[in-house]
Amino acid sequence: MSDLPNASGAYILLIDLDRPLALDIPTLGPATLPPGRYAYCGSARGPGGIRARVGRHLKPDKKPHWHIDRLTGPGRIVSASGYPDGHECTLFARLLSHPGVTVPVPGFGSTDCRRCASHLAAVPAGFAPP
Length: 130
Fold this sequence. Notes:
Elements: E1 9-17, E2 21-25, E3 29-33, E4 36-44, H1 49-58, H2 69-72, E5 76-84, H3 88-96, E6 120-123
């Protein structure tokens, strides 16, 4: 985590779920994520940049604020990659270009985005960020 930049930009979290996870997000409706690996693309534009945002995601006892907070508690963050001056929509488009990458929950993490179907992808086991 200390190698993540404190600059503004975007990041990708890889999260492993060991068991099914029921999601009930009022704006998206109920959904269940099966066990597997997921990649979440997020942005960090506030104070402390990427390092601060990812650091918040790593805290075990945070109050849920973003959609991704529903995965970071029951799931295990296996890696975090930072992209200074990057944009989460560009990262997500790159993710979707890989074979076997799918959108498990339309609108997840992208309710304010008009470009992306989601900012959460189901990725094959062993997947590494671009």
